[in-house]
Amino acid sequence: MTKKSAQLLIALLILSLLTLTGCASSELTLEAIQKKGSITIATSPDFPPFESLENTDVVGIELDIWNIICDKLGVELDVRQMAFDSILPAVQTGKIDAGVAGISIDEKRQKNVLFTDPYCLAAQAIVVTSTSPITCKADLADKNISVQSGTTAESCCMGEGYTFSSYESNNDAQMALTSGKVDAWVIDDLTAAEMVSAYNEDNPGSPLIVLPEAMTSEPYAFAFAYGNEELVGHINAIIDEMIEDGTIASIFEKYGLIYFSPEK
User: Fold this and answer.
1) Domain that includes residue 44, residue range
2) Which of 14, 46, 138, 197 allows an S-S link to 169, with CB 3.0 to 4.6 Å?
């Protein structure tokens, strides 16, 4: 191969790589999703009242919010189900457009995905059995805690140095507590209230208790891949309007929850 041929081959290889990189880009704009006619979200429907299954349909607070967002954007909502810890990687790689699964904003996640403006403020709650000696966060020091894999409950327990066991779903994490495999269960407070209430209704003789002291306080938002700032800007305007006019508060009221607006 001559020097000139080698240079030409290298140039063609570089051009091919640049072309492939361009093809892999999945930048979303308002015009692009309106042309497609839909926006695809991924969720894990084991997080009531934010997401749960009703027959085969995913329903809940965030679905109500997204139906309104899509209506205002002029597109259909396409809902996909997957395990919670698979959602953000799917957002990053462009397999889905947005992650909608009770996702809390934290510094680690912000390095990997672009968040919308937060739409509510939540906290990590500590759940124990009625006979548990655990009464506050300090009592968790030498105990085993159940959490859902990939959640801020997991990262919080890891950061605090607690002993914990991770489960694919919150249903499994709850069962670990009720079966005695762990001493406490850490989960977002709003979902804790829903799941504990449902469990206690079916098990009045051995109820679960949500402790008054929370582990953390954190905002909920929706996740997109970086590069989609234009579309997220339009969605932020809709979210901010829904906060201001009371639409999101009314959705929370529909599900029997007190709404805490995110701090601005």
Assistant:
1) 27-121+220-254
2) 46
